[in-house]
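#onboarding

Welcome to the new folks! Below is a worked example of what a typical request in this channel looks like: someone posts a single protein sequence, and someone else replies with the predicted structure as tokens. Don't worry about understanding the tokens yet, we'll cover that in week two.

Example request:
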Amino acid sequence: MSSHQLISLASGLSLVTALVVLVSRWSAGARAPERPSVALPTFEYRAHGGSGWIDQTLAITNPNAVDVAPVLAFTPVDADGRALRKVRVGTAYGSDRGELVVHPDGGFDVLNFSGPDADRVADVRVTVTKLLVLPAAGPSGYIEAKPTRGGEAVSRFATFDAVVLENPHPEPVTRRVVHLVYDSPRPGASQQVVHVTPIGDLAVVPPEGHLVVPVTPPVAALIRDRGAGQAVSLKTYPSR
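Example response:
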């Protein structure tokens, strides 16, 4: 039996309504498949995160007892609920590619908008096109990415050649690391991510241990060029 199950969904989701689908799980020699119900995630777009928090986030509620990795599609809308068809939506954590794992206690992605009328986006309609249901719930809680140079801790604004991930859990955690560059919005507008630079590949941090993720010279140069004089951050997110 496959350890993962894939659900293909064509219907859209509102921001407040959870739909329920049935997944067939076949086991060798079984006369009939089990049909456990899997509730789809629900979403809430937040244009302003408030002091100390990221703007333009998509909060994701996972009502299941196991982790899920959705593949999402987005329709940005204006204040009157009209679709803005020429606006493109990007993500920092890859929820549009099934890259973001959402634990039962929830998660979020960071959206950005580009193209004509991007400044008119007031909300986002979300469609789940696929849902990967993982066999269990992994350790949750934020894992910080600490930048270092020559093994010494440095500021995220400095040049760094590695990031260190520390895992307080008694089991492994799987994370991806990204360097985010933010714009300088006009007063009252939300701040958005303008550059996303992945650092390394999928990182598996050992139980109650740490992992050093090297930053290659080309990636370091990209981070330095994109982030010069800008607001930046280093973030991790659960992934697979």
